[in-house]
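>> Question from a student workshop board

For tomorrow's exercise we were told to take the sequence and the ligand below, predict the bound structure, and bring the output to class. My setup keeps failing. Could a helper post the expected result so I can at least see what it should look like? The ligand is zinc ion.
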Amino acid sequence: MQSEARCGKLIVKDGWVICPVCRKGKLLKLRADTTARNLPCKCKRCGQETVVNIDAPEPASVETSA
Ligand SMILES: [Zn+2]
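>> Workshop helper replied:
Here is what the output should look like for this input. Compare the format with yours to find the bug.
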């Protein structure tokens, strides 16, 4: 049971890790302080498993400029 873990760029959109395979499915919800290492997430959309590595907290890019 080998699964190729590609270390490509993770697509993060609106606080969600987007599946790099189909680029449509949401893999994982991110918080500002979320960290993950070698966390396998299976896309519900295409069924591909992607290993997620989140070392540094992503800066929240929420547009809340009043
Ligand atoms: Zn997918």
